[in-house]
Automatic annotation (TrEMBL), chains A, B:
Domain HTH tetR-type intervals: 13-57
Record key words, sorted: DNA-binding, Transcription, Transcription regulation
Superkingdom of origin: Bacteria
A GO molecular-function descriptor: DNA binding
Name of the protein described by the UniProt record: TetR family transcriptional regulator
A Pfam family the protein falls into: TetR_N
Naturally occurring in which organism (per UniProt): Mucilaginibacter oryzae
InterPro entries: Homeodomain-like_sf, HTH_TetR, Tet_transcr_reg_TetR-rel_C_sf, TetR_C
All residue ranges annotated as the Tetracyclin repressor-like C-terminal domain in the record: 100-185
Length: 192, 192
DNA sequence: ATTATTCTGAAACAAATGTTTCAGAATTGG
DNA sequence: CCAATTCTGAAACATTTGTTTCAGAATAAT
């Protein structure tokens, strides 16, 4: 027998995520957040919690979206190699068109070393990325789409860590061609 | 006709760098810095300047050290490939034994997007890293130490961006074997 | 030794930080 | 409509932030 929460919580999380994503955890103030979320700090503390808790929810939300993307790609029922190549091209597009790098990467370097909860969310996310790549590589090998003289586990680890450096490169040089050429070399390694 | 600065400025920069390196720019307070540097904030502002200026000096110092390391390695007069392989092994050691990741990488993601001066220091540093790799790869090709069917410029870019992901991987998994295996695969690609 | 200049320490500064308080508006179920 | 409960807005909170002030200690050159 009382009123309900007035604001849309998942929309508010989305807005907060965008601010954290762009500015990073420490450079984002509570005012930045409540402005973007369009709620009062009392509502924030009553429902979600403090800044740390909100950040955890945002990182979780970010990784949830990625998880859905991977699932959708696998459900496509296309050949393993074409899913893989599609994914790489899309990753390149995100890097060269996105305006604030990858939140998971930024968070790994800024926060994960000091916050165990955040780290565990990123570890789980990384594990899903690994599984996505590993399964595609393994299946592509079994179907003869790519050479099979390397361990799929090694290749999955290796490729999974490769994108991170492309983000850094693009922050420094803003050179799309550089990224595209690296991606082409990357694909060539797999297939030839 | 007056007294001189009492503290050792380059030692103070070194101490400040260690704090920034570990905690990042935004999570480091002026108190953290003056405590580590063992000077009063008035001395800091009289000599070096404000927090931003101090950070710039620290990043510059960090990249200066790297520059010296590259020069020393090239002066070694050993074969290009052995210099390269040595360097990769040393990079792995730094990743798996260092206790706070790479300051250049962390700074690229946390600060370089918002601070043009810091970004330019990192761009110059990245260019030196690129040159180091490019020259070694090119020379190794000319001396027949490695295959020469790829563009040295592409390989230098590609390899230069690869380490960054290894740092991220180690933050999340703290698994030295993972890093070592990726490094071995990395070297194998070059030589085989 | 004197003097002119510069450095240092401690305190003070305003502004910004993350968080809490609470009166009153709102809305639910009865 | 009532009453009980919960939400919201604005203000206030104590800390912490980056930075400045300034009196006095220190020292270089004369």
């Amino acid at each position: 027998m009382a009123r309900n929460v007035e604001f849309d919580e998942s929309l508010a999380i989305q807005k907060a995520m965008e601010v954290f994503w762009k500015k990073g955890y420490n450079a984002t103030s509570l005012r930045d957040l409540t402005d973007a979320m369009q709620i009062n700090s009392s509502s924030l503390y009553n429902t979600i919690g403090d800044k740390q808790e909100l950040f955890v929810r945002c990182v979780q939300h970010y990784t949830d979206i990625r998880k859905q993307d991977w699932e959708k790609r696998l459900a496509g029922k296309r050949s393993p190699l074409s899913i893989l190549v599609d994914y790489i091209h899309e990753a390149v597009n995100v890097i060269i068109n996105g305006e604030s790098s990858c939140m998971a990467v930024k968070t790994a370097f800024e926060v994960a070393t000091n916050d165990e909860r955040v780290k565990q969310i990123l570890v789980a996310d990384d594990q899903r990325a690994y599984n996505f790549l590993h399964d595609l590589i393994k299946n592509a090998m079994e179907e003869g789409e790519i050479r099979d003289d390397e361990d799929p586990a090694l290749l999955a680890d290796y490729f999974n860590s490769t994108w991170t450096g492309w983000y850094e490169s693009f922050i420094l040089h803003q050179d799309p061609v550089k990224i595209k050429r690296m991606a082409e070399y990357f694909i060539k390694q797999l297939t030839k």
